[in-house]
Amino acid sequence: xxxxxxxxxxxxxxxxxxxxxxxxxxxxxxxxxxxxxxxxxxxxxxxxxxxxxxxxxxxxxxxxxxxxxxxxxxxxxxxxxxxxxxxxxxxxxxxxxxxxxxxxxxxxxxxxxxxxxxxxxxxxxxxxxxxxxxxxxxxxxxxxxxxxxxxxxxxxxxxxxxxxxxxxxxxxxxxxxxxxxxxxxxxxxxxxxxxxxxxxxx
Length: 202
Hints:
The chain is mainly beta.
């Protein structure tokens, strides 16, 4: 994992309640990834919903940008102990994606899949009912490649490794299938408020 910009400071009394256990506030936006950002040509970009190997729906970039948009503003928390307050994201809510596809979730589990071959598991319940989106803009501007652009999953109530960068699709799975970091000792769920960083944390 590569990173830059880690800076922390003691939380002010009026914001301390916003920090999960073991976290510190940063005003930077640290960059973490398995490697360099993949080169993604928007002319060839596609986002696909699958049930196992079966495609359920797929959108080109132009089609995806025409879907209903939503905005979310709030705090994000990284397993490496930084938290960033009052971030603002715009994208397509997972609820709206399924509505556009005309389908209901076929299973209770999802594997988010990325263009750099990264994947991570998320229960579908943590993506539905306004809890998650495929984000394409950050703070009013197109999402930069180093932060997962052109599109990334945003699941802000879980540790940020669950918000897969450079996303290309969601695969519904019959069981909770471990992704890249989960296979390497990270927690299968990743709730910051329960400090579920690693396998074995309650």
